[in-house]
Amino acid sequence: MELDARIVTLRMAETFVISRGAADEAEVVLVELTHEGVTGYGEATPIERYEESAESALAFVEEAAPLLGDDPFALEAIDARLRERPGEQAGKAAVDAALHDLCGKLAGLPVWKLLGLERAGPPTSWTIWLGDPDDMARRAEKVRGRFKRLKLKLGGRDGLDVDRVRAVRGVADVPLQVDVNEYWSLDEALEALPQLQELGVEYCEQPLPAGDPDGPELKRRSPLPIYVDEDCHTLGDVPACAERAHGLTVKLAKSGGIREGVRIAHAGRALGLGLMLGCMNESGLAVSAGAQIASLFDHVDLDGNLLLAEDPWPGVELVDGVQLPPDAPGLGVREAVSHTR
Question: Cβ(130)–Cβ(162) under 8 Å?
Fold first, then answer.
């Protein structure tokens, strides 16, 4: 297999704000794998929270090229070789996506069918990024009728998080989910969660910092299901997550790709955990990789491509609130515009 990789810059439609910071663009690593004249494409967004960058992901991918071998269908063996190298989960995810895209194209099947899965998963949530309560309500009102779920970014550390949810609830009658991105203490969580339950919030994602020793106590006392994101990276994290949460969040850029995402989902299901599939700020190429396995999950947050000023990889369709993967071979998306390099 021949490998080519580069860094691509994606522009956000609006500044995206969470508790840890704000962003107007996202840098992703784009991978191309060619075998017998057929090319598979993959993309992933390195996560700064885990000390990854586009440059470190690109370096990993280029150094990993000799590990790929000549058989794109040797997915398990290739995955094992990549995982012998620590870190750089986004780089692994981009290679994994390109391999699945290539295999699907060679077999003439979409990846979801190649994996024996259903095409459609649950409706995606739409992310309402962190702002003041009235601003978040205005942005929620703008998308009324388009999405069947809303995810609210909280963690403002200004005492207004419940007010944010209350303001959005005033203009939205769809199920709400909240993501605190590690910015509450145990006491703050125990104070806020009963109020969020009264406002009809379905679950709370990562209220405490990853590894916080109060995690099991919060799970025991919370009136709402607790999901963990920053606590859950790969399959080996799942047992500890079960001790501190009712559910877990899988992101391909965090887990290392489709294969590990599927493993995590099955392990979580075996332990009775709820499952959520998330994404980063990324194009339709990466969102399609997630959408291929969305049917394994209870909740889906695959709106990354919809948050961009322009999606350079169209093909994922938003149908009745569901991000449907294409029915074309592989990941099914096609490059539409020139990338910014």
Answer: no
